[in-house]
Amino acid sequence: MMQKKICLLGAFGVGKTSLTRRFVDSIFSDAYLTTVGVKIDKKQLDVGPVAVSLVIWDIAGEDEVSAVRTSYLRGAAGYLLVIDVTRGQTLEVARSIQARVASEIGNIPFLCLLNKTDVPDWDIGAARIDALREEGWNVLRTSAKTGEGVEQAFVELAQRVLA
Amino acid sequence: MQELPAKVSESLLELVDAQRFLAHMVVDDEHNLVQLGGQLAHYGLAELAVGMPVADQLPFMEGMLPLFETPFLIRSLEMPSGRIADVHLFADDSVVWVVLMDMTAEHNETQLVQQKAYDMTLLSEREAKLILQLEAANAELVRAHTALAESREALLVTHKRLQQELLEAERYVRSVLPAPLTEPFVLDWLFVPTTEIGGDSFGYHWIDAEHFAFYLLDVCGHGIGAALLSVAANQTLRSQALREIDFRNPEAVLNAMNLVYQMELHNEQYFTIWYGVYHLPSGNLRYASAGHPAPVLISGMPGGPSEARLLPAKGPILGMLPRTNYIAQSAVIGAPSRLYVFSDGAFEIERPDGSMLTFDEFQAALCRPPVDGESELQRLLDFARDTRGDRVLEDDFSIMKLEFR
Question: Which residue of B has its CA nearest to A12?
Fold first, then answer.
C-alpha cells in the first residue's frame, strides 16, 4: 500500500493534536495537553480507487522561543497548516512557517485549516481570510471539537499529494 | 572521546546504555532492516523483522531515506510502548544506523514546564483580548454617554422652551377669564388646572342692562388641545359670536354651540357646559346644561340656617350629537343666597385609600360657614387637596361663586 508522510504545523495550542485525534481516533478532549517533540500516527484511507496510508507527523507547535524544525518535513508529501481562529496572531505564525517551509523544503502541497470554528468569538476577520485565498492558499474551516471539515481536510490533502 | 582509553569509553557506553535504554537498527541502501540490537522491547519494537522494509515497520522512517542530513535527530518521539525516545540517525557508508535513547523523564519534565508556560501565555492572550474588548466597550459607553448627554441637553432646551410656551398659553387662558365682580352681586372664582394648562374655562358678562350671562365649561382631557377648545368656546360665548342667537336664551345658545362645536370638527373633543342668564330685576335665573354637574344654590345667611338645593338640567354633552334640544330650566334666586357653579374636578376626588368623595360631602363643605379673613373658595380648594392627600389634583378645579345679598 502506498504510504505518504504528511505533517501538521502551526503555532502552539491551535489544535494540531486534537485534529489528528479526531481524524485518527474520532475522539476529542477539551483538555489542552501540549505536544513536546513529535507524535506520529498512521491512518489508511481511500482516495478514489487508491488506498493510501497516511503517516501523520504531529509536530510540536511554534512559540516565541522555539521554531518549528522544518527539517522534520524532509520526505513529507504535504502538510496541514493550522490556525486558531480565536487567536489572530496564529495566522501570522502560520504565514511565517509556510514561508520557511517553501524556502527550505520547497513548494509541497498544503492546506490552511481555520480551526476552532465552533467558537463564536473569532479574532480573524473575513478580509484576512480573503487575503490568504488571494495569495493562492487553500483555506478550509475545521473544528476538532465538532468534527467539522476534519475528514475533508485530510482527504483533500491526500488527493493533492497523490495528484 | 578518541583520547579516552577503550575501558573508559566502554564504561561510559554501558552507563548510557543503562540509563537510556539504547537500542539500534541498521538499514541498508534498499531501505530494509538488516540488523537489530539493544533494548528494542523497551520501546515496543521487539517484533521488528530483519530483511523487511523499514518504513513498513517504523512509520517515522517514511520519507527519511536516503538520509539528507547526518547525523539527524528526531527529538522526543513517542514510541509504540509509550516511552519517549530521541531518535538518532547516522549514515555509515551504505547503511544508516537508527539509535534510540530513552528521554521519557526529560520529555515529561519539559512537557510540564511547557504546559505551564503555554497555559500562562494563553491566559495572557485571553486577558489582553478581554482588555481590548473592555476598552472597546468602554469607549462605546463613553460615546453613548456623550450622545445621551447631548440628547439630554437638547431635550432640556426643548423642555424649557415647551414649558415657556405652556406658561404663555396658561397666561393667555387666564387672561380670557374675567375679573371678579362686587356689584350688583359678588362674583368670585378659582381656577386651578391640574397640568400647566387645563380644559376648564368660564366667563360672564352683561348681555344688556338687565341680563347677566355666566357659564362654565369643561373640555374632555387636559393640556394644550383641551385648552385651545375651551378658550375658543369661551370666546364664542363672551363675544356672543353665534349668528341670530339670543344670548338671553340658554337653550338656544347651547343648541347653537352644539352645532358649531361638533367633535368631528374639533379633533374629536367635546365638552360639558352650564350656561345661565340671571335677570337682575326679577331675580329669575334661566339656565341649561350640556352634561355638566348641577350648580348648588345655598339660601340663607352665611353662618345661619341655610338650605342647599341643586339646579339640575338635562342635556347631552356638547359636540357629541348633531341634533340636540336642550331645555332651559329656571329658578328664582332670593337673597341672601350663594350660587356655586363648578366643574366635576371640584368634587370627583379620589382619596388615598381609593374611595371617592361623595357629592353630599362636597355639598356639606359648600354649606360650611365662612371664616373671617379666609377666602371661601380657597378653603374649598384646600378641602379638595386634603381629601386627595396631595397638593396636585387629578382634574382641573374650577368654581364660580355668585353671592346675592
Answer: B118
Across residues A92-101, what is the average pLDDT? Answer: 96
Domain final residue, candidates B175, B196, B226:
B175
Which residues in chain A are contacts of B62 at CB distance < 8 A? Answer: 3-5, 55, 75
Closest chain B CA to residue A43: B59
User: Phi, psi at residue B188, to the nearest 5°?
Assistant: -125, 160
Domain count, chain B: 3
Instruction: Write down the ipTM of this complex.
Output: 0.90
DSSP characters over B120-187: HHHHHHHHHHHHHHHHHHHHHHHHHHHHHHHHHHHHHHHHHHHHHHHHHHHHHHHHTSPPPB-SSSEE
Which range marks the domain in which residue A147 is found?
Answer: 2-162
Verify whether the Cβ–Cβ distance B56 to A87 is below 8 Å. Answer: no
- State whether B59 and A75 contact (CB < 8 Å): no
| pLDDT tens figures, B217-266 | 999 988 888 999 999 999 999 999 999 999 999 999 999 999 999 999 99
Residue identified by cell 522494509 is B53
pLDDT at B147 over 70: yes
Contact at CB, A63 and B72, closer than 8 angstroms? no
